[in-house]
Write a structure and sequence with these properties.
Length: 64
């Protein structure tokens, strides 16, 4: 959970609730360390109508 998503103030009281909150933050951090990075985007620049036709033909073949 990104800290920018927290938009309200809230209170945590009591030993048990404080421990649960701290554990949740720690678990979230540990999960983020092991998350696989998002794959690089593959960008194709098309410069002519012929290139567009070829690209679209490949697309139709892979989706079939």
């Amino acid at each position: 959970m990104a800290t920018s998503s927290i938009t309200k103030n809230f209170g945590v009281s009591g030993q048990r609730q404080v421990e649960k909150f701290a554990n949740a933050i720690e678990e979230s951090y540990q999960e983020s360390r092991h998350r696989a990075p998002t794959p690089d985007l593959r960008i194709t620049h098309l410069h002519s109508s012929e290139e567009i036709k070829k690209f679209m033909a490949k697309r139709k073949k892979t989706n079939a």
